[in-house]
Write a structure and sequence with these properties.
Layout (H helix, E strand, L loop, with lengths): L1 E5 L2 E4 L4 E8 L7 E7 L6 E6 L5 E3 L7 E6 L4 E6 L8 E8 L2 H6 L11 E6 L1
Parallel strand pairs: 2-10
Antiparallel strand pairs: 1-3, 3-8, 4-5, 4-9, 5-6, 7-8, 9-10
């Protein structure tokens, strides 16, 4: 399996970025996908998850600012991030699992992660 996250960069507070995650090596449309982030010195945390039926959930701190979506034809999940804050600065990762609950709560047991993409929000 390959997990290719891209789209990160440096942006001022209040700005926007759209991250992309392309997953190959598994039947993408059957999988729930999550976006996660890890800031320096902190544990990895989940940010947003989307089921194979496009049901979505968000952590409280990003609700109303971030939107997760998927394009099964492109094996890609997106994370639209608006009204970015300095506390959103982190390396963002994606991952997937057949079980929705696993991407939301069980991600710390995942044995493989891609390189992630750096998001830096300046004040």
């Amino acid at each position: 399996v390959q997990l290719q996250a891209s789209g990160g960069g440096l942006v001022q507070a209040g700005g926007s970025l759209r991250l992309s995650c392309r997953i190959s090596g598994r039947p993408f449309s059957n999988y729930a996908v999550g976006w996660y982030r890890q800031a320096p010195g902190k544990q990895r945390e989940w940010v947003a998850v989307i089921s194979r039926d496009s049901f979505t959930r968000y952590r409280d701190s990003v609700k109303g600012r971030f939107a997760i979506s998927r394009d099964n034809a492109k094996n890609t999940v997106y994370l639209q991030m608006n009204s970015l804050k300095t506390e959103d600065t982190a390396v963002y990762y994606c991952n997937s699992d057949l079980v929705f609950g696993a991407v939301e709560e069980g991600f710390r047991t995942f044995g493989f992660w891609g390189q992630g993409t750096q998001v830096t929000v300046s004040s």
